[in-house]
């Protein structure tokens, strides 16, 4: 099946979009549902007893239940809607981190974490005089479980890692990471921003304590994200955003807070985003993860094979590690932004720069790189254009 046809963005002009890891394109089905919501049902959920407000509440409940089933959470109140992965991690850092991490404690992160899963922890560490430690990579660029187990200690108060590394596409051993932490009663946060679109996440099977992702990398609109947390943890955590809808009673000096999930959902919620997320999840499930993963991996393998034939290009992945549809590369001696600029003249869109992963860049020993990432709408022609564009870079820079 040609999934490209489902995405209206490809109807106008030549586009070889290889930046799905930054944000996915949106299927017409998702876009239509969002428009339909605003045209027919728009209301502020939980704030009124009239038809449209109640309908909006019903829509939020139904989207929450869809997300619950999608990641197999035990309870719907464990699903908190946020704006993004970034907001979800900030929520956990401000709420769990500021409450339970203290002077001398340690926060254990992966060196390949996205800044969204580093900077909020730096804030907590500074405020609470805690220490951040990083788990290194092995020779294949994989999360080093030996280093991890060595660094897990009685002082560790949380482990926070990515399911898939946004720069290299490496699939990290999340199950083993969680098991090792739980042997020491340490909670684990999984940043599923890149992994959720590639394979099934079952939070109960994984026994994840927190799992976060953004809708926009998952065929949904921007501005909607998810923070899953185990109920027993969420119950212990103070609110993050204070204001309307997250309270029970408010007096002049004091407030009590609503039960989950409202406790963490202060203010008007993004109902249109939740509608889009529900539809995007239905879209993924109708296609099936097996197919999505197969397409991504096949394109990745083909592209990697072609790129590796270009002796003026270097890549940062080995065949020894399982990866998703993401390839990091540089044209030797040329800045990644220059490469991306020339590729753009071939209508090839790749991301260039440090990919919000400067500690990883330093670790690999490069200032920046290009990243090609694949989605279900990509095909062999996109790869051919990428290769053609890279040959042009060689010609322009005379290498
Ligand atoms: N974590 C990872 C692994 C990511 O790839 C991204 C997005 N690049 C984020 C977190 C942040 O996602 P968002 O910008 O949607 O909050």
Automatic annotation (TrEMBL):
State its cofactor.
Answer: pyridoxal 5'-phosphate
InterPro entries under this entry? Aminotrans_V_dom, Cys_dSase_SufS, Cysteine_dSase, PyrdxlP-dep_Trfase, PyrdxlP-dep_Trfase_major, PyrdxlP-dep_Trfase_small
Which chemical reaction does it catalyze? (sulfur carrier)-H + L-cysteine = (sulfur carrier)-SH + L-alanine
Q: Which domain of life is it from?
A: Bacteria
Could you confirm whether the keyword Transferase appears in this record? Answer: yes
Where the record annotates domain Aminotransferase class V, the positions are 16-386
Keywords noted in UniProt: Pyridoxal phosphate, Transferase
Q: Which GO BP annotation is one of this protein's?
A: cysteine metabolic process
What are the recorded GO MF terms, alphabetically? cysteine desulfurase activity; pyridoxal phosphate binding
Q: Give the EC number(s) listed in the UniProt record.
A: 2.8.1.7
Q: Which PANTHER family match?
A: CYSTEINE DESULFURASE, CYSTEINE DESULFURASE 1, CHLOROPLASTIC
Show the NCBIfam families listed in the entry: sufS (TIGR01979)
The entry's family comment says:
Belongs to the class-V pyridoxal-phosphate-dependent aminotransferase family. Csd subfamily.
Q: State the protein's name.
A: cysteine desulfurase
Q: Which organism is it from?
A: Pseudoleptotrichia goodfellowii F0264
